[in-house]
Amino acid sequence: MAKLDDLAERVDRLVLRHQELKRSSALIEQQLVAVTAERDSLRSRLAAARARIDALLERLPAETPASGTKRGTTGECT
Q1: Which residue range forms the structural domain that includes residue 18?
Q2: pLDDT in tens, 2-35
Q3: Mind listing the pLDDT tens digit for each residue in 62-78?
Q4: Which of 23, 4, 24 is nearest to 12 (CA)?
Q5: Most CB within 10 Å of its CB: which of 2, 5, 14, 69?
Q6: Residue 4 resides in a domain
Q7: Is 25 a domain residue?
Q8: How far is it, in rounded angstroms, from Cα 73 to Cα 65?
């Protein structure tokens, strides 16, 4: 009878552990969904920022042959 009681106690502990793991798994899945959404949002924002930077770079004057300076540099040393 002692073996049966021990077995029942172990089964009860396993059931409790299983329930804890299911709750933990559900929480981790929720976190994964949130982090994935945040990642996608950040990627979108990064792409938009890159597009804005590219547009600004296109508006800068091209290299001038007389001065030999490249776009975005002044040729001055500080």
Answers
A1: 12-38
A2: 999 999 999 999 999 999 999 999 999 999 999 9
A3: 877 665 555 555 555 54
A4: 4
A5: 69
A6: no
A7: yes
A8: 14
